[in-house]
Amino acid sequence: MKATVTKKVLSEGLGLLERVVPSRSSNPLLTSLKIEATEQGLHLSGTNLEVDLASFAPAEVQNPQAFVVPAHLLSQIVRTLGGELVELELSGDELSVRSGGSDFKIQTGDVAAFPELNFPSQVDATVEASDLARALNSVRYAASNEAFQAVFRGVKLEKRDNGARVVASDGYRVALHDFALEGEVRELIMPARSVDELVRMLRDGEAKLSYGEGQLSVTTDRVRMNLKLLDGEFPDYERVIPTDTKLQVKLPSGSLKESVGRVAVLADKNANNRVEFLVTEGQLQLNAEGDYGRAHDTLSVEQSGTEPAISLAFNAKYVQDALGPIEGEAEMLFAESTKPAIFRPAAGGGYMAVLVALRV
Amino acid sequence: MKATVTKKVLSEGLGLLERVVPSRSSNPLLTSLKIEATEQGLHLSGTNLEVDLASFAPAEVQNPQAFVVPAHLLSQIVRTLGGELVELELSGDELSVRSGGSDFKIQTGDVAAFPELNFPSQVDATVEASDLARALNSVRYAASNEAFQAVFRGVKLEKRDNGARVVASDGYRVALHDFALEGEVRELIMPARSVDELVRMLRDGEAKLSYGEGQLSVTTDRVRMNLKLLDGEFPDYERVIPTDTKLQVKLPSGSLKESVGRVAVLADKNANNRVEFLVTEGQLQLNAEGDYGRAHDTLSVEQSGTEPAISLAFNAKYVQDALGPIEGEAEMLFAESTKPAIFRPAAGGGYMAVLVALRV
């Protein structure tokens, strides 16, 4: 096998794989990637057992052959090369990587022992890659990284009238985002960590979804990815979304983010970073108190609804997370002091966060 | 005490102090800073016991008074404030920090218990702050962060014909930088960690040095700093600088940095990141070998000297450190395979690194 490929193309392909393939593992094969040289170019693939990833690098190839190399090592070598073209040559189980005045020899692994990765070709649905990325990005924070129950570490995909919804919850808050999708929507739960990898792979263009047995596959111009799905029953999150809100406020999301950030400095870390919200007479007052002192902040808001005032408390960190995806005007909808509240962009756009209030 | 100060000025002053004052300590007073409000403004000072730092923030002050507050907390609060002006008011032992719609109350500490910090006013020498910063920055890497002997964790200042020199060594390498200085030079050793703090404080303008008992003080427009000095005998580093070099090479420092970075990928981490240098016939060949394979790189160099060829080995990491401060053309001067080698900018400028060669 002998291949000539541009450094840029190879290095991009390896960079994608490097994100998924672990740099250390008790099984060294898992730190490797498989390169299948064909007459069109190099098919690169690797897995962390949760996510399989494949990318393609066009190349001039003689004597096509498949081989296995340490993923991070090859990526690091190619990144540091000086020339614009890279020549790969396999002789026995040694791979030469040459470019400019450089010549690297690295040991290849056992290609027969490498796990079989299958990327399906059927397409069940299509979506704008940037829409899918934005939706996943907006809800990801609400999934737990540690929760005992797996579904709290997942992001659910479900069908909506005009497309699809992704939703995540750790039991204390819910984040959801609706988006347009063409084709079938199957209800499924992706591990949030795999969602992080998926979001990194999504750019512009179209993403094709394919539903498999315990697996979701996503294909874009650049990559193909399989995500192993989570089993379990996602909580009935719609139950906690208040429907009878009695007081609504609108204000610039930037001002609210800054204000919450300010008072949070003095909020008690051992009491859920508690920040009290008091809405009355077109003002939102924020109060926090901790070991080092007290913070008080006042913001003007556009207030509406049937109740003249409301007072409730939230975890400052959760409020900041909920506001994260909101740009421009934010809207907060309150039911009662003990009931969850809604945070969403006043202009719509598909995103909504629901926060459980802290006890008074 | 009541003071009005711009957020920008106060926040810059606090930002400087925040770098030095520890955020945690078994003695909470050490995490505090002292604010002495005078009719001219606010004198801020703090210490980590190795370095004392003072800065000044012009302010409008009524009823001048001194007080002590948690440094990081105040800095964090001021940074997040929305308004342009900040009002500080002391009532009893509670400090109010007000700006825009925000009002923070924080507890002050015991001003009598705060360590007495003295910043001398005499000037023994003056130097361009940027020259001093560059010189210290260039040699800092050669000081150890862990060595058992304190002097190896220090940077020495010493007198030279046309000014001063700073030099650091961890026993395996030496870095030195000569620079212009007006006035007296006293031989002294600064802890490298304090040097890091000093470098961060130095900008443009003049730095005034003042030598005290076991202490160096540096004053600039913005800050005053005391550095506690190290005791001990600095090693006779001049002994290891080769004077009879027999082969010299010149090449662009960028190409050499890249090349060393490349071959270092395969160098054996357990064998000092060993990279072999072979100079012959106007070429520098670099070779490294480790568990995963072998790397070979070739660079064209401008070769001179009485010896036709030399082969020696270095720790790749040390070569990269030595090249760090060199821009443009680099010069390497070799004596023998077992002797230290010199790395310096071909254009001069005061910097030189000396590297011990690894055994063949």
From TrEMBL, chains A, B:
One of its GO terms (biological process) is DNA strand elongation involved in DNA replication. GO terms for cellular component: cytoplasm; DNA polymerase III complex. Forms a ring-shaped head-to-tail homodimer around DNA. Gene3D superfamilies: DNA Polymerase III, subunit A, domain 2. NCBIfam families: dnan. This is Beta sliding clamp. It comes from Deinococcus proteolyticus (strain ATCC 35074 / DSM 20540 / JCM 6276 / NBRC 101906 / NCIMB 13154 / VKM Ac-1939 / CCM 2703 / MRP). It comes from the Bacteria. Belongs to the beta sliding clamp family. SUPFAM superfamilies: DNA clamp (SSF55979).
